[in-house]
Amino acid sequence: MSKDDISTTTTISKEFSQGLSLITLKRPSVTEYFITVVPTPGRHETAMFAEVADILRRNDAQIISQDIFTSLDGDRSTMQTIRDTIGPLQWPITCIDSASASSFAGTQIWAVSGIDVQRLMLYGTVVGSLWEDNYAKYCRLGGLSSRDTSSSREAQAHEIFDQMETALASGGMELSNILRTWFYLDDILAWYGDFNKVRDGFYSDKGIFNGLVPASTGIGGSNITGSAVMGGLVAVEPKNSNIQTKAVASPLQCPALDYGSSFSRAVELTSPCHRRLFVSGTASIAPEGHTVHLDDVDAQVAKTMEVVYAILKSRGMDWSDVVKATAYVKEADDIPAYHKYCTVNKLPPMPIVVANSTVCREDLLFEVEVDAIKKGRRASPDHCVCESSLLRNKKGQKSKDIVAVRELPQHKTKGREQVKPGKT
């Protein structure tokens, strides 16, 4: 089958119902399902998970991973509901405190059908899912937490990175295969700088800066295990040149590496039938790296969404291509600001969970991450300039795997932009 035939036989369908969205990516070798569930007035949590169970049964699908945002008090209750409706928990689960008055903020499930899925285990717990098609081997790790919560935060962070390497190795993969990471840090403002030092050291020791630096989210969030940090990742090992991966620059922000945070703004995976874009956690940060629109949540939401949209457009995508998204709002009372932005700007329905979480700088009020998928192998040249960038990595070496994109015009925003150094 030619690449053109593969592309034409690939379909993306979307279903949005009350409190549940289902996006289905059907391609020749496998079908993927992106399921998002959020609380809805008048619908009990049990009924919503029962609907998820029905989707999985009808499609003979296996869960690859699940992220749950709930209160720590509601954690066990939510887990039991999942057991009662879907079955035994035999996939990697990342459960993070949403810190809101509501016991359940939402869940995101990634599932597949048509292929075999291998489970990866560490210390008797399922932490990963491994599967492959004709083009690559894929791995999703989640729920990685420290076994010694009495050790220092830095030691626990080291342990999470070591677990990532060990789990990947058990599936025959390497750290260089990582495209995307997540780190949920308890009391993030107290030690995010120290966490960055641990990550920098690990990446330096393992040679990550010499290749693709993963996209990432580093956000506040405690967990029921008491671990100082909980981690997860997506890794892809290409089997041939039909699969390509590259970092994507942000048209409206400098590389995070420029101010000492070791992640790419976005990473793109290109296959014969589709392109997949992982956009890192993004916040209201100026091109120079400082926070803008202090104490103005509406302006920070607008700035953040503008930056993410620019990344999407640079790759020939838009909001309608998003298959999974998470928004993090510092104050629960400010959650309506995101929904207001979507209404005013007439955004299409999106599969998003909005969690009440601390962002990595004291002055940041909002952050969002998205995964997007577009049929076809290439972005239109009208949207991007695909040329080698002269952006430099953390070692000061020229990086050839970053896509330079045309600068998009910035919309004018009200309010004075104030400078406050920091990292995100």
Quickly list its features.
disordered C terminus, 60s Ribosomal Protein L30, Chain: A, 424 residues, 6-stranded mixed beta sheet, alpha+beta, 7 helices, 19 strands, globular, 23% helix, single chain, 7-stranded mixed beta sheet
Describe the structure.
With 424 residues, this protein is of the alpha+beta class. The chain has a domain at 1-114: 2-Layer Sandwich (60s Ribosomal Protein L30, Chain: A), CATH 3.30.1330. The chain is 23% helix and 33% strand. It contains seven helices and 19 strands. Strands 17-16-18-15-14-13-19 form a seven-stranded mixed beta sheet. Strands 1-2-3-6-4-5 form a six-stranded mixed beta sheet. Strands 7-8-9-12-10-11 form a six-stranded mixed beta sheet. A hairpin with a 3-residue loop joins strand 14 (266-270) and strand 15. Helix 2 (45-58) packs across helix 3 (72-85) and helix 4 (153-170) crosses helix 5 (188-206). The longest helix is centred in the middle third of the chain and has 19 residues, at 188-206.
Could you give the topology of this structure?
Layout: H1 3-8, E1 11-17, E2 20-27, E3 30-37, H2 45-58, E4 62-70, H3 72-85, E5 93-97, E6 104-113, E7 118-122, E8 125-132, E9 136-145, H4 153-170, E10 178-185, H5 188-206, E11 215-220, E12 229-238, E13 244-248, E14 266-270, E15 274-283, H6 297-314, E16 322-329, H7 335-344, E17 352-356, E18 366-375, E19 402-403
Parallel strand pairs: 4-5, 10-11, 13-19, 16-17
Antiparallel strand pairs: 1-2, 2-3, 3-6, 4-6, 7-8, 8-9, 9-12, 10-12, 13-14, 14-15, 15-18, 16-18
